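tmp note - Peptidase M1 membrane alanine aminopeptidase domain-containing protein
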Amino acid sequence: WWSDLWLKEGFATFMGYISLNVVEPTWGVMEQFLISNLHKALELDSLKTSHPINVVVNHPDEIPQIFDVISYSKGASIIRMMQHFLSENTFRKGVTNYLNSFQYSNAEQDDLWLHMTQAAHQ
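out:
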């Protein structure tokens, strides 16, 4: 469950920007996303001390360590990239199906990939 923390935190971060952009499109929040999240994630991810977004947690003491820029900003940036390469309509279909399928249970990143792939093939 903890290994897919990036899904929860990445979506929360990205959807915050999407929501604000819908309410106030003149604020340029999606451009701000690039500076605040994408560039920061790419910079930190280039370091030797970086880690994958999907991290195996073997002990509860390791959990606080994964609440970091990689989980939040890199996770949100990967979700943004999916939205762009799949198209907004396909992305929305995939996310809708994904959320409907797991509204009462836990999902893993493979579940997201499956729903995005299915939406892309429709």
